[in-house]
Amino acid sequence: MSSRFAIDVPPELIDSARSGALASLERLYRLFERPGHNLALRLLSDPEDAHEVLHDAMLSAFRRLHQFRGDCPFWAWLRQIVVNTALMRQRSRRGHDAHAQEIPDFESAVPDAGPDPLHLAEAAQVERALDLLPAVTRSVVWLFCVEGYSHPEIARAMGQSVSFSKSQLARGLARLRRDLGVEATSHA
């Protein structure tokens, strides 16, 4: 599994979109529609919420195109907007959704207990197992393992501590290993 966000966007397309050219805005939307929806779906596990997050994030990005300085790839900038929008949706939903209950934060992370289950199991099995994780844990696992975010980046995005991110990842991977029947021995 890997992020599909790494799409090179010509600077001319961004400049054209900044000037308000509808064809350029539509082209940017079409380029990132699928990866944006997939990322939101992974973080939220609800197709309707993912669809709304995609639209909200793209509108936000289009309104803020003048803020894109080009010091990172456009796709990374847009991906962060999608992540932030999805996490805001997740926070607002948390009180209403029993499935989104968090695993508590612990000061020290659970030590790594073996191979990454996301790379050892069949994709369909991983999808089902991810959907069973609490929303916050699923988000941390996805952002770290698939999107390549660091623990400090995840902590900052979620308004939590680095140890929170590490403990959620360790607990999420342990649960995935258990649910997928992946052996928990380390391959040194």
Automatic annotation (TrEMBL):
DNA-binding listed as a keyword: yes
A single GO molecular function term of this UniProt record: DNA binding
SUPFAM superfamilies with a match to the protein in the record: Sigma2 domain of RNA polymerase sigma factors (SSF88946), Sigma3 and sigma4 domains of RNA polymerase sigma factors (SSF88659)
Keywords: DNA-binding, Sigma factor, Transcription, Transcription regulation
Highest rank taxon of the organism: Bacteria
Stretches that traverse the bilayer: none
Pfam family, one: Sigma70_r2
Single Gene Ontology BP annotation: DNA-templated transcription initiation
Family (UniProt): Belongs to the sigma-70 factor family. ECF subfamily.
Name of protein: RNA polymerase sigma-70 factor (ECF subfamily)
Organism of this sequence: Pseudofulvimonas gallinarii
